Structure to design on (875 residues):
């Protein structure tokens, strides 16, 4: 981690340090430009090359950074617009002072350079130089004369004595050196008082050419750091004398200063334009680098300053999107750092609260599922509603009791009443109790229905957490638990009838046989003793008693059948064959055969054959008894949805207007004859086999009774 | 009638017409140097012009020899002399007129160290010459990179050494 930080720091600091070094070098170069000192002069191409590279790198970096910033602004990235404003403000703050300094520097440099040049100074220097030249011309003339004299003296001597003559002349004239050269530059003789002239240099060819033509060449030349006069004079046709004459020692420094000052001034005058150009180039390079660096620094500073804000904005967006618990990196110890710490604490608390809420929701969901499971498994209907009549809850048993498909349960009590008008009294009762603010109540309610009245027993209470009248701004809620008492009542009645049947079978059937036997014995004993009308009366009375006893026996047997406990012998039965066998018994005795519309194939049921025959006989007999006019009876079987239906239809008087489920109870018959147990037995047998029976009116008159049984 | 535009100063030129490794050993080179008027004006105003010369012997498998010389041309205003100075050897020549100095540049003879006497025949030799900008005064170094009148092209001459 520390290595990464150091690397990052180095990557950040090194370019800035390199740029700073470049700028300082450029400034030193500017200082160096006005002197001949070559401290950085050799590096100027490298410096400007480095500056060009730095400019390219800066321009590239700025372009990339600006492009990224523009893309972020277009994408509305958090903090991008703020960063662009910061950048613009920083650039606006940085650029004008730099430009101002640049302008002043240029102005200062050009005026300063121009101020170096003064006409009087130039004239003074030229005058000094001219004066020096006049002095040197005088010295040259003297040296020329002396040299010519020595050359002429040498011309009159033998060459072998020239060396001796030169030595003598050197001492006599005070020359620094004397040398005689041949035409091809060879030294013929030489004498020197100055060690630097021990090896004298031959005159230039042009000089020799001029001297041979008779003249004397005299020049002032440097000798080391001093000036000396060098004169060349013809000795003879093949020899020249080269004499080096000193200048006075007091003159030497003056001559050096005059020459140096004139040099400097002339050089500066010549370099004035170059100097200005150099300063302009250096300052422009510094300006360009400074501006680019300022822009880049503005971008970096803006990004660094805005980054915590951008992170906060992004974190806020994440939290708004539901991603709680976002933690931002520390942003220092300033106000932004405090804000970031506060955000982190808030985010953590939100995440904790969210977790608690989720746990609470999960617990609530578990409780709701538990309650739902309980409600769904209750045989009692449960509905919850509020004071505004909105249905909050209705379990499956409620829908079943109220004869609604579960998906049909509406949202309001009013909609419930509209959907099933028969439930109007129930809805009215619930609304009334809600208005009255009764906290708990219990009532029995009878609802009219097509197949008989439905008795509901209701128990209601106000739910906790809400006032009875919706106090506290929360609408009151009520829960109603109800049971369908109708089935219970029917079972109670059936149990009562079963008890009646058993008592009849036990208390009535047993005396009937003695009564019948006593009547027959009485007729047997008394009939021979009577005559005429008395005997006929006795016989008629006896027959009446016997007939009524038989009728009572039949009725008691019927009750016995109804009350018989369901000891079934269930076995797979071919239903069509069973129906056909029963109908065959009636075909011989009826004016027209029963119409058979049996289902194709052989539907099979698991049933007790005896009880099923009893069921069929009762249905056929019921139809025959109802068919007073048209004796057409139709018996059909059909398979539908895993069940088989047995339908017995007649064209009799049809069902009475008040026909309902009670007509399947004992002693409910619309016919003059009959025990009133036929349909009750049919329903009892059907229910013993897991089926049901229903009665319908036929189009065109008559009725049909349909028994539904499960297929085997 | 032709309308003449502003006169463009002639660009400086440098060419080595011939170079020979002579006995001595020494290098004899015939140069064709044309200085711009700006350069000549600079010379007259006391700014020395330094020519950098390099002689190179690139012998495969043999010792490579390189000789660097600088020739400084300078004007002495008080003496009114133009000075030729070989900075490495101290060889100094003076000319009363600039034309003489420039004429002297047509033929350059550089005395060489002894190892150059052993250069084998056929050894490829290269002699290059250019203006030493580092020797220019500070204010001129940068403009000399940009200004046409200061761009003296490098002259190069290559030949195999003949014994």
């Amino acid at each position: 981690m520390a290595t990464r930080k150091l690397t990052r720091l180095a990557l950040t600091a090194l370019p800035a340090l390199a740029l700073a070094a470049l700028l300082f070098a450029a400034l030193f170069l500017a200082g160096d430009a006005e002197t001949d000192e070559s401290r950085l002069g050799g590096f100027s191409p490298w410096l400007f090359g480095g500056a060009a590279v730095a400019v390219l790198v800066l321009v590239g970096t700025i372009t990339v950074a600006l492009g990224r910033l523009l893309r972020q602004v277009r994408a509305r990235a958090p903090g991008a617009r703020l960063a662009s404003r910061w950048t613009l403000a920083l650039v606006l703050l940085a650029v004008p002072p730099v430009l101002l300094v640049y302008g002043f520097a240029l102005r200062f440099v050009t005026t300063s350079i121009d101020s170096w040049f003064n006409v009087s100074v130039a004239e003074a220097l030229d005058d000094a130089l001219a004066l020096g030249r006049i002095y040197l011309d005088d010295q040259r003339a003297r040296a020329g004369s002396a040299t010519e004299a020595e050359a002429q003296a040498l011309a009159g001597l033998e060459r072998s004595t020239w060396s001796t003559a030169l030595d003598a002349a050197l001492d006599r004239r005070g020359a620094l050196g004397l040398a005689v050269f041949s035409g091809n530059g060879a030294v013929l003789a030489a004498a020197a008082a100055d060690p630097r002239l021990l090896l004298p240099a031959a005159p230039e060819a042009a000089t020799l050419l001029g001297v041979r033509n008779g003249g004397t060449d005299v020049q002032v030349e440097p000798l080391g750091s001093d000036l000396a006069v060098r004169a060349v004079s013809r000795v003879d046709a093949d020899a020249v004398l080269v004499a080096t004459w000193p200048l006075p020692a007091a003159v030497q420094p003056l001559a050096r200063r005059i020459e140096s000052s004139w040099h400097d001034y002339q050089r500066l005058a010549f370099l004035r334009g170059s100097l200005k150009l150099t300063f302009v180039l250096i300052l422009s390079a510094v300006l360009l680098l400074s501006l680019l660096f300022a822009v880049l620094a503005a971008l970096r500073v803006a990004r660094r300053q805005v980054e915590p804000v951008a992170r906060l904005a992004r974190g806020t967006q994440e939290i708004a999107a539901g991603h709680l618990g976002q933690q931002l990196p520390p942003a220092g110890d300033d106000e932004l750092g405090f804000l970031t710490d506060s955000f982190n604490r808030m985010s953590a608390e939100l995440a904790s609260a969210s977790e608690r809420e989720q746990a609470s929701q999960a617990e609530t969901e578990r409780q709701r599922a538990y309650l739902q499971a309980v409600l769904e498994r209750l045989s009692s209907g449960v509905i919850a509603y509020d004071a505004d009549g909105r249905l909050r809850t209705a379990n499956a048993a409620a829908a079943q009791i109220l004869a609604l498909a579960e998906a049909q349960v509406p949202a309001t009590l009013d909609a419930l009443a509209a959907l099933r008008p028969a439930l109007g009294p129930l809805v009215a009762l619930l609304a009334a109790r809600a208005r009255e603010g009764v906290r708990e109540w219990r009532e029995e309610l009878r609802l009219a229905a097509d197949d008989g009245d439905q008795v509901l027993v209701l128990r209601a209470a106000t739910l906790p957490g809400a006032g009875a009248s919706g106090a506290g701004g929360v609408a009151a809620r009520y829960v109603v638990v109800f049971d369908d008492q109708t089935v219970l009542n029917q079972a109670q009645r059936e149990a009562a009838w079963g008890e009646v049947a058993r008592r009849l079978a036990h208390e009535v059937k047993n005396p009937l046989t003695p009564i019948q036997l006593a009547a027959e014995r009485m007729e047997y004993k008394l009939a021979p003793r009577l005559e005429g009308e008395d005997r006929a009366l006795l016989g008629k009375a006896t027959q009446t008693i016997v007939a009524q006893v038989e009728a009572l026996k039949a009725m008691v047997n019927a009750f016995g059948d109804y009350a018989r406990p369901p000891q079934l012998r269930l076995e797979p039965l071919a239903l069509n064959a069973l129906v056909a066998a029963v109908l065959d018994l009636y075909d011989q005795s009826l004016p027209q055969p029963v119409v058979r519309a049996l289902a194709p194939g052989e539907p099979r049921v698991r049933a007790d054959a005896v009880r099923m025959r009893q069921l069929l006989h009762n249905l056929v007999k019921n139809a025959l008894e109802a068919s007073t006019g048209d004796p057409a009876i139709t018996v059909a079987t059909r398979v539908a949805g895993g069940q088989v239906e047995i339908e017995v239809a007649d064209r009799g008087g049809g069902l009475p207007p008040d026909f309902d489920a009670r007509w399947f109870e004992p002693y409910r018959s619309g016919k003059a004859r009959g025990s009133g147990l036929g349909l009750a037995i049919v329903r009892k047998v059907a229910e013993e086999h897991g089926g049901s029976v229903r009665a319908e009116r036929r189009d065109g008159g008559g009725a049909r009774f349909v028994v539904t049984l499960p297929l085997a | 009638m032709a309308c003449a535009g502003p006169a463009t100063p002639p660009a400086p030129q440098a060419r080595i017409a011939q170079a020979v490794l002579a006995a001595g050993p020494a290098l004899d080179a015939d140069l064709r140097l044309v200085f711009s008027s700006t350069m000549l004006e600079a010379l007259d105003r006391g700014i020395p012009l330094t020519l950098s010369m390099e002689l190179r012997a690139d012998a495969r498998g043999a010792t490579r020899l390189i000789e660097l010389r600088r020739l400084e041309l300078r004007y002495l205003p008080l003496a009114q002399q133009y000075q030729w100075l070989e900075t490495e050897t101290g060889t100094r020549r003076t000319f009363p007129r600039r034309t003489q100095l420039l004429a002297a540049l047509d033929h350059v003879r550089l005395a060489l160290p002894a190892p150059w006497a052993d250069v084998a025949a056929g050894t490829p030799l290269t002699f290059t010459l250019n203006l030493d900008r580092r020797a220019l005064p500070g204010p001129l170094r940068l403009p000399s990179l940009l200004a046409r009148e200061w761009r003296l092209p490098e002259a190069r001459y290559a030949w195999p050494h003949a014994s």
